[in-house]
Structure prediction request, 540 residues.
Amino acid sequence: MSMFCYQCEQAAKGTGCTVVGVCGKQPDVAALQDLLVYTMKGIAFWADKARANGAKDQEIDRFMIDGLFTTVTNVDFDPEAVSKFINEGVRLRGKAKQLAAAYDGAVPAAAQDWALPASIEEQIKLGQLHGVKDYTVDADIHSVREIIMYGIKGYAAYADHARILGKESDEIYAYTHKALAAMLDDSLDLMANVGLAMEAGRINYVTMELLNQAHVEAYGHPVPTPVQLGTKAGKGILVSGHDLKFLEELLKQTEGTGINIYTHGEMLPAHGYPGLKKYAHLVANYGGAWQDQHKEFAEFPGAIIFNTNCIQKPADSYIDRLFTWGLVQWPGVKHLDGWDFAEVIAKAQACDGFADAPGQEILTGFGHNAILGVADKVIEGVKAGAIKHFFLVGGCDGAKSGRNYYTEFAEQAPKDTIILTLACGKFRFNKLDLGDIGGIPRLLDVGQCNDAYSAIQVAVALADAFECGVNDLPLSMVLSWYEQKAVAILLTLLYLGIKNIKLGPSLPAFITPNVLNFLVENYNIGPITTAEADLKEILG
Ligand code: FSO
Ligand code: SF4
Prediction:
């Protein structure tokens, strides 16, 4: 076995990638990411002890978030970049140990003073020893540890976006150290680990809330906004990822240049923010979800830049027009550090650009503020029987054919139901005309995956209005997962006590039968079947 990774829904054969990642991750990068995670557990051990003595360190705290986000699916494919992180991690492990000076108990291997080999080849060998297959506890505890690890990786992405907008929370850092340190403590039993997993759900909620605050303070509450799917005459830059601050800076730097900015994938909801939509050259959304990038990027006659996942192996047809920024990296793709986008702008100027070809318009911008702004109408609709049920059909998209389920679900949902959606899975059905109920569109795009926070606010407000619990509302969650941010969101929903979630297109490879039973017994979580059967079951 040259590698082992099973952190995402694409895990080969439903069990794990062992030769090369289905995502394109090579065994060398997999081993280096494993070594980085191992290094971070060592840092966490000391940082947690240091915090118990009241000693905190901003450099260490921020490093952990960046390091974890780096190992999320479809983010960093560059061995040199991951190796740099490990080097830095070993230095910070020493710093954390110094801060925890008074400790003289037992020290787990990851936190000891192991030296990092200078060559990347030797680092890869070391990484191969410390992957997820290397565990000393029973399989169920290991499974829960992996759930926690992926939940933390997921919220690390959101914490990174929030920090870029100037928002940090010590609660997030404290839990991250505590939970990673707990992964080195074999004395913790299964239920202690389950408790830590629920806490990861709470911390993800805190992180999504922080990011929501950061977005709203910077750009205002999203408002319902039509988004053009066609093209406009002129040069263009396509922005993929989740980072709104990046988009704002690019919009500022391209103002008056004649370059039009197009959003891709999870950047679509950016069109709903007053502070971003005010730029006239933010013209349209181009293409569908991340897994269609090969075909769509080849046809985009401009520069393309990723500011977060999901990047795929670039094709020769567009690699010279492709850029990465932030933590996303692919060997051979031009990476930009900092906030000067002159190179992307120059590339866009040198490309052909588009002709005018207006297309369909779709709606976005239904954050909780917008939906709750018409709460009276919604509540009246439910009371009068015009709205029978709400569905949250949200989550990630991916390449598997079983994901047609979500399109069929949206198509077959009865006309007296409303569908809230978020994240990139929406591209399966967001061009359908589902009509409206008394002026309220039947399909409401709440935003990015992190805007699960907004969907939760809507659910809680409805529960308050009807004086019941969220589980008693005529609301069902039908979720699609792909990578670790979805794990974080699922943990949040479980932490909030939400039951009866349907999950697809397949269940995670890192969940053992016993852990799955626990989730079924306590939360009645279940796999999707067919749209027809699930709708029938939900609607009785
Ligand atoms: Fe999708 Fe990719 Fe937003 Fe993920 S673009 S799959 S869950 O990174 O984060 O929804
Ligand atoms: Fe496989 Fe997913 Fe891991 Fe990539 S991230 S190696 S596709 S399990």
